[in-house]
Write a structure and sequence with these properties.
The chain is an alpha+beta fold. It contains 10 helices and 31 strands. It has 4 domains: 120 residues, no CATH class; 119 residues, Mannose-Binding Protein A, subunit A (Mannose-Binding Protein A, Chain A), CATH 3.10.100; 116 residues, no CATH class; 115 residues, Mannose-Binding Protein A, Chain A (Roll). 19% of the residues lie in helices and 32% in strands. β10 and β11 form a beta hairpin. The longest helix has 14 residues.
Length: 611
């Protein structure tokens, strides 16, 4: 057997001090293809806001030994002066009415001609302009002639902004205003102009252009920016259709043992849950105000005022929540009456026809218990509300009855008809409650005033948060589309029984390690994870050396912080028999020593990712 020594378990972890993770992608793509790739797999094409972030990218390229130019998320694009996304529906912000010869590179600002067609022109040119007034919802012509920037300032001071043209109807409306209201020349600035913008819509504040850049003058093609390790990473502009390698970024907030990932894609709650489970651990659960503050900081850093999904769902669940009791999809078996659920309540009774109905949990009814010893259902003639029935079953049997398949449904139906007096219906263990996607305990809530307030028996209800109101939650249909936040947990509970050495090899084969508990903070998190274990003890990365007579962690540290139980050192002197390793006891979360040949569940810890 391989000898595990103190020196052989030293682990090197690269710690990232940045809230971002950068991902070099070794595929040549156009800028638009690279943007799509980054948004699908990470957050977006990289934006660079200061020299520190540019240095991070330079180091990444040096580490990859790359001298090629790589795309960054900067594009010279036509955008509207009025940049409130709520003002545009669908693709309205992309409406264009170019003259056939335009844009031809004469300038970065746009005027509309008397024929309703658009032309680019030097922004310093003096001409009439059209404002938009948000109060009257109308367009306001201004006879005075100004350059584009002065026109923009005038409109923002006196109205709302320079006019945006969202569709053909508005274009015709402004064309008529120009022809009927303005003197020669019959043309006017509108709010469209060309400027450098980051793909993720962050502010463009610190350009790092190489000398002489940008120097491309676009007409009908788009211009984007690249960087490289030459010239200290100075940027160059080039056609977006060119093919380059590229860098994506992922927004991460690390709190304790969690990393939070903002995902800039609108999805339903179920789609968001699937995405998070595939790429990280799960949709985010929030267990205290500190974690909520972490989410708020993440959204503020992304400059996001949108609502975002969190992992909270108002779902139908069984009172008996032991996952080992259900095989496959048995926990999802349902036998609803065709009219149900209709929102009458959060608890479920079975009727004498075997079909299920929702009802107010305070209603008094017969009920059916399940007894785990006899493996049978037990009818109770006495009537109780659902909660009292649940308590009775847990005290006298195992729990309120779960119905896992058609056979058990028929069995319970027969019991109701043969054993219970009128009204031949009984509570079963299905009820509606708020649950986290990752099955952590729902112990903390931060509902907005009047929330939750959605109740639809046939629709799933989920929760969202936002940076307004301290991040307070609202409930809404899970089918709604939102951005969302995932989390990645550094601790992974493996619910398989293995020897200590097998557990160590398993973790390391998965690019992890057995967990080392070197602080109260880590102990608290390990305690939470241990509560879901299927064994009474859970292996830690704790090892005893008979040679030097000390305990040490597999990350190379000796034991300073500890949670030893009394008498933990039993058997330490029997080195000829077996080496001892450390476990955490599930019942009191204290540590004891056990022979390394015992078989238990175990906890792996993921390494901290680098940039």
């Amino acid at each position: 057997m391989e000898r595990i020594t103190l020196m052989s378990v030293l682990l090197t972890v690269v710690v990232s001090s940045s809230p971002r993770q950068y991902h070099f992608v070794n595929q040549n793509m156009s800028w638009t293809e690279a943007q799509r790739y980054c948004r699908e797999k990470y957050t977006d094409l990289v934006s660079i806001n200061d020299m520190n972030e540019q240095n991070d990218i330079n180091q990444l390229l040096q580490r990859e030994n790359r001298t090629d130019r790589v795309w960054i998320g900067l594009q010279d694009a036509w955008v509207w002066s009025l940049n409130n996304s709520d003002f545009y529906r669908g693709n309205e912000s992309q409406f264009r009415k170019w003259d056939p010869t335009q844009p031809n590179g004469d300038g970065d600002c746009i005027y509309m001609n008397s024929d309703g067609q658009w032309h680019d022109m030097d922004c310093k040119t003096q001409t009439h302009f059209i404002c938009y007034n948000g109060s009257s919802k109308g367009f306001v012509p201004v006879q005075e002639q100004k350059n584009w920037t002065d026109a923009q300032n005038y409109c923002r001071q006196n109205h709302t902004d320079l006019a945006s043209v969202r569709n053909e109807m508005e274009n015709n409306q402004i064309q008529n205003i120009i022809n009927q209201t303005l003197t020669s020349p019959n043309q006017a600035w509108i709010g469209l102009h060309r400027s450098w913008n980051w793909s993720d819509n962050s502010n463009f504040i610190s350009p790092l252009w190489s000398s002489g850049e940008p120097n491309e003058k676009a007409t009908n093609y788009s211009i984007c920016a690249s960087t490289g390790i030459s010239d200290k990473g100075g940027w160059k502009d080039e056609r977006c259709s060119d093919q380059h390698l590229f860098v994506c970024y992922d927004v991460v907030v690390s709190s304790s043992l969690r990393q939070y990932h903002f995902v800039n894609q609108n999805m339903s709650w179920t789609e968001a849950q699937r995405y998070c489970r595939e790429k990280y651990t799960d949709l985010v659960s929030i267990n205290d105000m500190n974690e909520q503050n972490d989410i708020n900081q993440l959204l503020q850093r992304e400059n996001r005022t949108d609502r975002v999904w969190i992992g909270l769902q108002d779902a139908w669940v069984w009172s008996l929540n032991n996952s080992d009791f259900y095989r496959g999809n048995e926990s999802q078996f349902r036998k609803w009456d065709p009219t149900q659920p209709n929102g009458d309540g959060d608890c479920i009774y079975m009727n004498n026809d075997g079909q299920w109905h929702d009802m107010d949990c305070k209603t008094q009814k017969h009920f059916i218990c399940y007894n785990g010893i006899s493996k049978g259902f037990v009818p109770v003639q006495e009537k109780k509300n659902w909660t009292d029935a649940q308590n009775y079953c847990r005290q006298n049997h195992t729990d309120l009855a779960s119905v896992r398949n058609e056979m058990e449904n028929n069995q319970t139906q027969n019991i109701i008809n043969q054993n219970l007096t009128s009204d031949h219906q009984a509570w079963i263990g299905l009820h509606r409650s708020w649950n986290w996607s990752d099955n952590s305990n729902f112990i903390f809530n931060l509902w907005s005033s009047g929330e939750p307030n959605s109740r639809d028996g046939n629709k799933s209800i989920c929760a969202s948060t936002g940076i307004s109101g301290e991040g307070r939650w609202t409930d809404e249909p899970c089918s709604d589309q939102h951005l969302f936040v995932c989390y990645d947990d550094k601790l992974v509970l493996i619910r398989e029984n293995k020897t200590w050495y097998e557990a160590l090899r398993y973790c390391r084969d998965m690019n992890m390690d057995l967990v080392s508990v070197d602080s109260e903070q880590m102990q608290q998190r390990v305690m939470e994870v241990t509560s879901s274990a299927l064994s009474d003890h859970v292996w830690l990365g704790l090892r005893h050396s008979c040679t030097v007579g000390i305990w040490f962690w597999v990350n190379g540290q000796t034991v300073c912080y500890d949670q030893w139980a009394s008498g933990y050192d039993t058997g330490l002197d029997d080195c000829d028999m077996t080496v001892r390793s450390g476990v955490i006891r599930k019942n009191d979360t204290r540590w004891i020593s056990r022979p390394e040949t015992d078989r238990y569940n175990f906890i792996c810890i993921k390494p901290q990712p680098s940039h």
